[in-house]
Amino acid sequence: MIFSELYGVYYSTVAEILRAAVARPVTGEELRHIVETHAFSESVLTIEPALREGRWQLLRGDGSTPCKHPPTMPLTNLERRWLKAISLDPRIRLFDWAPGGLEEVQPLFTPEDYCLFDRYSDGDPYEDPGYIRNFRLILEAIKARRPLRLLIKTRKGRTARFRVMPLELEYSEKDDKFRLLTGGNPHATVVNLGRILECSPVWGPFEDCTPVAVDAARTVTLELTDRRNALERVMLHFSHFEKQAERLDGNRYRLRITYQADDETELVIRILSFGPHLRVTGPETFMGLIRDRLRRQKSLL
DSSP H helical segments within the chain, as ranges? Predict the structure, then answer.
């Protein structure tokens, strides 16, 4: 755990209660509302009795507190070092976060401490002012459910204009790129943010805001033989996919990986990279993709 238990949800919730109680006595209803807002649904069964019965000697019977000042929650040195490390990630600039007060802090880790492999080198330009502006505008439009007008550079180097309803952003660790999922236009359901040249909100009515049906998630079933540390390597290699694993016997495991249609080709390539340690057992359509890929590879020999 990077963050101390003393700064967890129970402590922050009680701190909110004390901030309110310093100003004036809190009622039982107010106390429960604070707990339900800041803690877990069942926390009211623990926090309220502990305060009311005096086991946590922070509230008097009338709801006032002996504390004279609102509690503060200063960051620990470890937390500050972790935040400093996060601030070195170029993607943090996309969220308009200024890490003030960390100038003299030694980062817990730096980008140089990581050796990245099996990732494309043409990731998005996270430090480009135009890219940052587009990202923030898109994120705000998603929150406000506001349509956008996009000018996009196509794969063939041409430009095209679309009006879309932004639905959500997704990040590909493999590609090191953000993608925008949209509705309202069947010709631009998935857009790479790096290809967006211009982005602006659409004010007024939008003719069609109905989300375009996105391909349902697909599942591939694999059988793994755990030799040469194959299980650990597979779980790491497919860490960003939703998956289930169960042991069959000995060193044999069954894996079910859920993926989107856009990731299918990449998934085929990754599975083949494990050779005989990983075998596709279903569905038949995915097994056909594996066979086709192997035939094409053989034809190049």
Answer: 9-23, 28-38, 44-52, 77-87, 129-144, 230-237, 264-272, 284-299
Both tokens of 56, joined, read 């946590």
Question: Which DSSP category does 248 fall into?
Answer: E
What is the H or E stretch that residue 222 is in? strand 218-225
Contact 216, 232 (CB under 8 A): no
Q: Is the pLDDT of residue 221 over 90?
A: yes
- Give the residue among 145, 262, 250 at the shortest CA–CA distance from 192: 262
- The candidate with the shortest Cα–Cα distance to 246, out of 218, 222, 272, is 222
CB 147 within 8 A of CB 184: yes
pTM for this structure? 0.59
Give the span between the Cα atoms of 271 and 291, in whole angstroms.
Answer: 12
- pLDDT tens-digit map of 29-65: 999 899 888 887 677 788 888 888 888 999 998 999 9
